[in-house]
Amino acid sequence: xxxxxxxxxVQSDLTEGLLGEFDPHERATVATKVREAEGEARGEVxxxxxxxxxxxxxxxxxxxxxxxxxxxxxxxxxxxxxxLRP
Length: 86
Description:
The protein is rod-shaped. It starts with a helix and ends in a 5-residue tail after the last helix. It contains three helices and two strands, in the order H-H-E-E-H. It has helices at about 1-15, 25-50, 80; strands spanning about 50-55, 65. Helix 1 packs antiparallel against helix 2 (about 25-50). The longest helix has 25 residues, at about 25-50. By secondary structure, it is mainly alpha-helical. A two-stranded antiparallel sheet has the order 1-2.
């Protein structure tokens, strides 16, 4: 997460002209680094939120715990991991 925030700051400073002049190739490299770091940050967050707890009136204790499992290289949205049909 920290790396993504750092690259976002570099990109922001670059856009505002605080870092001097850069050619289009260098700007594209920074944009690529921002995208790559964002993907890594998403993976970190996905790994941290492995379990989802839902209120379930039909369960004996009133909750249902869903184990989303290990993160995949391409995390899926939580809504797709949960089947909410009765």
